[in-house]
C-alpha cells in the first residue's frame, strides 16, 4: 500500500456498531469467519495514493467523542488467509470496531487493525529505551559493588532477523507492501504483533577489568517522563575474556587530568619551559598491540602531548607544538601513571605564526572580500518525504539508523521501478571500521595505528551539524542518542543531515541536424554525519542519484598529527611544515560493509558476485587491426576465492547479480561496485598493526551473510593479541557464494604525504566508491526526469538584451 503524507491510527472503541448492544444487526457468519482469520491486530491505517472516480481516496481524520461512528470509503490492500494475495478492497468503516469490505465475493464485516506499532524494528534506540536498558542491566548486578563499578561502553539496538524486518515493512510500517514477501502455499501468515525490541549492551567492569555483553528485551517504552515504570528483561549476559572494549571520552578526560597532575611529568614540562599546565594538551591513544606488555589484561593508554602558546585563546591550534621525548603509560582501569620516562629533551617548536585557522588569528584577521552570497532556495520545499526514520526521495526509499560505533547506517535500500514495483538493492550499508597507520618508525609515531571505529567509535565522536555550514538548503536533521560512560543518556542534536544537492548535468544531447537539444540537471539526495577523532575530522556521506546510482564518500579534513625535530634534524618519513615541525606520512583506510539484496525479496538469497576485467585481445585473424578488447567475467564461487584487489590496468570492478531475475535482454540484473582511487598498506607484511588489521591486505572481501559477522577486525580490536580475528578468520570457512545472501566488504584507502598547503587546517580530501545499476533497469531510469526551470531563474550579469536560442544553421544542414 502506498503511504500517505499523514497517517490515521485507529484505536479501539468500547462498542461495535454491529453488536446487539449497539442496536445493530449481528455480525454475519461469513464475517465472523473472516474476523477469526489470522490477521494483524496492530496496524497503521493509511490511504492509498490513487483516487478512484467513484470512491475518492483521501486522508481520514477520526473525530473524538460521540461522533466517532461514521462511514467512509477508500481503497486499501488488505490481507487475510481466505482471499488471494494482494487484492484491493474497498472499505466502509462503520465504527472503530469494524469495517465492511467490498470484494467480488460480496460484503464482509471484519475488525480493522486496531493499534500501530510505536517503533520500527530498525529504528535506533530512543533515549527512553536506552535508559530502560541501562537500568535493567544495573539492577541485575549481583551486589551494590558490582552495580557501582559498571561502565557502559555502548547500548545499541540488537537488530532483528531479516524476516522480522520484512513483516514490519509489509504490514506495520511504510512501505506497507506485503507483496514483497515470498508467496507461500497456505497464504501469508500475518502476526498479531511484532517481537519486542531488544538492546545489546557492552559493559566494562571498572573494578574487575571484565567486559560483558548483555541482551535486554524492551517492552513498549514511551517518553522518559512517562516511562519510569517500564522495565526491561535480561535475556542473556556473558563475560568476554581477554578483551578491552573501546575507550570513552570520560576516560580520556580523566587520563589527561591525572597526567597533568603527575609530578615527574610536571618537572619534564618545566625542562621544556612550560610551567602553566593549562597550556598542556594530553591526547590519550590506545596502545594497540605490539608485544605481550600490551595484552588486554590491563586497560592501557599511551598519551601524546601537545602544548598551546596562549591560555586565553580557545581556538588556538595546540597541535602545532608537539612535545617529543616523554614516554607515559597510563593504567586506565585504576587511572594511574604506571610508566614514565623523560627519554630525550627535544626543544618545543617555536610558535608558528601560521598555526591558527580562524579569521581573527591569521592573516591579520582579513578574509577575502570577493565571495558573494550563494543561497540554496527550494520555494516548494524538498522532494523528499520523511516518516520517522523512513525516507522517500523520488524513486528511492530507505531507513536511517545510527550506532555509536559506525555512526550512520542505511537500511532497506530500494528503488521503485514503475510496474516492477519496489526493487531492493541492499539490506544494510555502513562504514564499519577505519585504520590510520603512520609511516615513521620512530617513537611515538610507530604506535599511531588508530582503529577509530573499534577503539573509539565514529558515532560517539559525531557532533551537531547545527553550528556551521556543514549542510546547505532545505535540511532534515536526525538526532542521535547514546549512553555515556556512567550510563546516562546523551543526545547529539542534528547529528545526521539530509538534504538535496544540484549535481550538474544529468544527461544532454543536441541533434546536430536540427539544433534541438534536451538537457536535464542532476539532483542527488545526500545523507551524512561528521565526527572528530582528536585532531582529524571525517565526514561520511551516502549520495543517492536519479539514475539509480549510489555513491559512498568520505571527506577528510582537520589538523595534521605532527612531530617535533631537533634543530637541524631531517626525517625522510614526513614533510617539514615549519622550523622544528614535521608531519609524518600516513594512510587512512576505511571499510564499508554492504549487505546486498539485489532484486531479492525478504527471505530470498539469490545473489552472486562476478569479477570483471577488461582484456586486450591478442593479435590474430579476429583482431587484424589490434584494437580489440573485451570484458571477461569470473564468478567468485567461494569466500577464499573472493579475496580480491583493485586492478586499474584492467579497469577491474565487481557486479552483484540476482540469479533468478533477468532484464529485457535475458541477462541477469545486477549492481556494480565501481572502485574509486585506492591503495594497499605500504607497511611490510610483518607490520605489527597488521596482526589486528589483516583485512587491509585485500580491497574486497565477499562473505556469506552471518548475523554476528559485523566488524572486520572482530568486535574488540583494542589491545587484541589474536592474529587475524574477524574477516581473515571468517573466510577460512570458505562458504559457497554462487547463490546466497551476499555481504561485500570494500576496503579503500588514501595515502597522505602531507603538504604545506595542508597547514594549519587541511582542505577536504575525498575518497569513495560507487554502486551502479548494471543491467538492473531496461533502460536509463533518468530519462523521465523533467526539464529544469533553471533558465527561468538564471541571470546573466553581462547581458544587455534578451538572448533567444536559434537553431544552428550550417551549409550541411541547409542541404539536408
UniProtKB/TrEMBL annotation:
Protein family according to the UniProt entry: Belongs to the copper/topaquinone oxidase family.
Residue ranges that the Swiss-Prot or TrEMBL entry lists as coiled coil: none
Record's protein name: Amine oxidase
Quaternary structure and partners: Homodimer.
GO biological process, one term: amine metabolic process
Modified residues (2',4',5'-topaquinone): 536
Phylogenetic placement of the source organism: Eukaryota, Viridiplantae, Streptophyta, Embryophyta, Tracheophyta
SUPFAM superfamilies named in the record: Amine oxidase catalytic domain, Amine oxidase N-terminal region
EC numbers: 1.4.3.-
Major subcellular location class: other
Co-factor note (free text): Contains 1 topaquinone per subunit.
Amino acid at each position: 500500500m502506498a503511504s500517505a503524507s499523514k497517517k490515521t491510527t485507529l484505536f479501539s472503541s468500547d462498542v461495535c456498531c454491529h453488536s446487539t448492544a449497539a442496536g445493530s444487526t449481528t455480525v454475519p457468519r461469513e464475517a465472523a469467519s473472516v474476523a477469526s482469520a489470522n490477521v494483524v491486530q496492530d496496524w497503521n491505517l493509511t490511504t492509498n495514493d490513487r483516487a478512484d472516480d467513484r470512491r475518492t481516496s483521501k486522508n481520514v481524520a477520526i473525530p473524538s467523542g460521540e461522533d466517532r461512528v461514521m462511514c467512509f470509503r477508500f481503497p486499501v490492500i488488505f490481507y487475510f488467509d481466505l482471499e488471494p494475495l494482494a487484492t484491493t478492497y474497498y472499505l466502509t468503516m462503520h465504527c472503530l470496531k469494524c469495517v465492511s469490505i467490498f470484494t467480488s465475493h460480496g460484503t464482509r464485516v471484519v475488525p480493522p487493525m486496531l493499534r500501530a506499532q510505536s517503533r520500527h524494528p530498525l529504528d535506533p534506540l530512543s533515549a527512553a529505551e536506552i535508559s530502560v536498558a541501562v537500568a535493567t542491566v544495573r539492577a541485575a548486578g549481583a551486589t551494590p559493588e558490582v552495580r557501582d563499578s559498571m561502565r557502559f561502553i555502548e547500548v545499541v539496538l540488537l537488530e532483528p532477523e531479516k524476516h522480522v524486518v520484512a513483516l514490519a515493512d509489509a504490514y506495520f510500517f511504510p512501505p506497507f507492501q506485503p507483496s514483497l514477501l515470498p508467496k507461500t502455499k497456505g497464504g501469508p501468515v500475518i502476526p498479531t504483533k511484532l517481537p519486542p525490541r531488544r538492546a545489546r549492551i557492552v559493559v566494562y567492569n571498572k573494578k574487575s577489568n571484565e567486559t560483558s555483553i548483555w541482551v535486554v528485551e524492551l517492552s513498549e517504552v514511551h517518553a522518559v517522563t512517562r516511562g519510569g515504570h517500564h522495565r526491561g528483561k535480561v535475556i542473556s549476559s556473558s563475560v568476554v575474556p581477554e578483551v578491552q572494549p573501546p575507550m570513552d571520552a570520560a576516560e580520556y578526560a580523566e587520563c589527561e587530568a591525572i597526567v597533568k597532575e603527575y609530578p615527574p611529568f610536571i618537572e619534564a614540562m618545566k625542562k621544556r619551559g612550560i610551567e602553566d599546565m593549562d597550556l598542556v594538551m594530553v591526547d590519550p591513544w590506545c596502545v594497540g598491540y605490539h608485544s605481550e606488555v600490551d595484552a588486554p589484561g590491563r586497560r592501557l593508554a599511551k598519551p601524546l602531548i601537545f602544548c598551546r602558546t596562549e591560555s586565553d585563546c580557545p581556538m588556538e591550534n595546540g597541535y602545532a607544538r608537539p612535545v617529543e621525548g616523554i614516554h607515559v603509560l597510563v593504567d586506565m582501569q585504576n587511572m594511574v601513571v604506571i610508566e614514565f620516562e623523560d627519554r630525550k629533551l627535544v626543544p618545543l617548536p617555536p610558535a608558528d605564526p601560521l598555526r591558527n585557522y580562524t579569521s581573527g588569528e591569521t592573516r591579520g584577521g582579513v578574509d577575502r572580500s570577493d565571495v558573494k552570497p550563494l543561497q540554496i532556495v527550494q520555494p516548494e520545499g524538498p522532494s523528499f518525504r520523511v516518516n520517522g526514520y523512513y525516507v522517500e526521495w523520488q524513486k528511492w526509499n530507505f531507513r536511517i539508523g545510527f550506532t555509536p560505533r559506525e555512526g550512520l547506517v542505511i537500511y532497506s535500500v530500494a528503488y521503485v521501478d514503475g510496474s516492477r514495483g519496489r526493487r531492493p538493492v541492499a539490506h544494510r550499508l555502513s562504514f564499519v571500521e577505519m585504520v590510520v597507520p603512520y609511516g615513521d618508525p620512530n617513537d611515538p609515531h610507530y604506535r599511531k595505528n588508530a582503529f577509530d571505529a573499534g577503539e573509539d567509535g565514529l558515532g560517539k565522536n559525531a557532533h551537531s551539524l547545527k553550528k556551521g555550514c556543514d549542510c546547505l538548503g532545505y535540511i532534515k536533521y536526525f538526532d542521535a542518542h547514546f549512553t555515556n560512560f556512567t550510563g546516562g543518556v546523551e543526545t547529539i542534536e542534528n547529528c545526521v543531515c539530509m538534504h538535496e544537492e544540484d549535481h550538474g548535468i544529468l544527461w544532454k544531447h543536441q541533434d546536430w541536424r536540427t539544433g534541438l537539444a534536451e538537457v536535464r540537471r542532476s539532483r542527488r539526495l545526500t545523507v551524512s554525519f561528521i565526527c572528530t577523532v582528536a585532531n582529524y575530522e571525517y565526514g561520511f556521506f551516502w549520495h543517492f542519484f536519479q539514475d539509480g546510482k549510489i555513491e559512498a564518500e568520505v571527506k577528510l579534513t582537520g589538523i595534521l598529527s605532527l612531530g617535533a625535530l631537533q634543530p637541524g634534524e631531517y626525517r625522510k618519513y614526513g614533510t617539514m611544515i615549519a622550523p622544528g615541525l614535521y608531519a609524518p606520512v600516513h594512510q587512512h583506510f576505511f571499510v564499508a560493509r554492504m549487505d546486498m539484496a539485489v532484486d531479492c525479496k525478504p527471505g530470498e538469497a539469490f545473489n552472486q558476485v562476478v569479477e570483471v576485467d577488461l582484456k586486450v585481445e591478442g593479435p590474430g585473424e579476429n583482431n587484424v587491426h589490434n584494437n580489440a578488447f573485451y570484458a571477461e567475467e569470473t564468478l567468485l564461487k567461494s569466500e577464499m576465492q573472493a579475496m580480491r584487489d583493485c586492478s586499474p590496468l584492467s579497469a577491474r570492478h565487481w557486479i552483484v547479480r540476482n540469479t533468478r531475475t533477468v532484464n529485457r535482454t535475458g541477462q541477469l540484473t545486477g549492481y556494480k561496485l565501481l572502485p574509486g582511487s585506492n591503495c594497499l598498506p605500504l607497511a611490510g607484511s610483518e607490520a605489527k598493526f597488521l596482526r589486528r588489521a589483516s583485512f587491509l591486505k585485500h580491497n574486497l572481501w565477499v562473505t556469506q551473510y552471518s548475523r554476528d559477522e559485523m566488524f572486520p577486525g572482530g568486535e574488540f580490536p583494542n589491545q587484541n593479541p589474536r592474529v587475524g580475528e574477524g574477516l581473515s578468520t571468517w573466510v577460512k570457512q570458505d562458504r559457497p557464494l554462487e547463490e546466497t545472501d551476499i555481504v561485500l566488504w570494500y576496503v579503500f584507502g588514501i595515502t597522505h604525504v602531507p603538504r604545506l598547503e595542508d597547514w594549519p587546517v587541511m582542505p577536504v580530501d575525498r575518497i569513495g566508491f560507487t554502486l551502479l545499476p548494471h543491467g538492473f533497469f531496461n533502460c536509463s531510469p533518468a530519462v523521465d526526469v523533467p526539464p529544469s526551470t533553471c533558465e527561468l531563474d538564471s541571470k546573466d550579469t553581462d547581458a544587455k538584451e534578451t538572448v533567444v536560442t536559434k537553431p544552428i544553421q550550417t551549409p550541411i544542414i541547409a542541404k539536408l
